Queue: 2 jobs
Job 1
Amino acid sequence: MDPEQYVDTHPDRSPRRLTDLAPDDCWALLEGAVVGRVARCGPDGPHVVPVNLAVSQRQVWFRTAAYSPLLGHCRAGAPVAIEADHLDAAHRSGWSVVVTGTAEAVDVAEVPEAVRLLDTWAPGSRSGHVRVLAHLVTGRRLTQPTPRPPTTEENP
């Protein structure tokens, strides 16, 4: 896909550029993310839950309560999507990364130390560890284009 997929030139807005991100760029952004949203489909339809997350060896990890429906869903090796983003409202810019893959509950003995130390914001015990094995990683970034310096023809 063309990296300069779309440039907004609406006369009432400053121009912005929407670009697709390469998988390596997506992983780099995810490694700095602290919060994301896990989406899953259950018998009652789609559910989206905010989680604290960590990335280790190109796998997304999160912790959840041992009794949560989310952990029950993940024990079955079910498909999920995880989205993380960063928004800058003042500059009307930001990025979003989505990982789709298979979630699996993991015994604490198999969890990397960085994930065991993951700080969760929600109160209560978060003893259920979940690993998402990525099948697809996509992302987009919305930015203002870098101004082009004037040429000598434009600025004699």
Job 2
Amino acid sequence: MRTNVPVFERGEITMDGVLERALSNKQKVEIVYIDSEGRITQRFVRITVIRKDTIFAYCYWRKQVRSFKRENILSAYPVQARYTSLT
């Protein structure tokens, strides 16, 4: 059941919540998923469209928009900005 309360305010962190938040914030996400040949792979993506069974995202490795079956996504988490020290 969906509510209008953001996922993080309810104390839950779900993969759907991470994906939806990444879409709304245009945030880069790292996903781990099973590809069409059964291999586990990892990608850095920017979500462009979320549908019932499919996620469309710009893949930084392939350098194009790709589709990912939701059922094959094993994990998803936001990529934190990395800062380097000037000292």
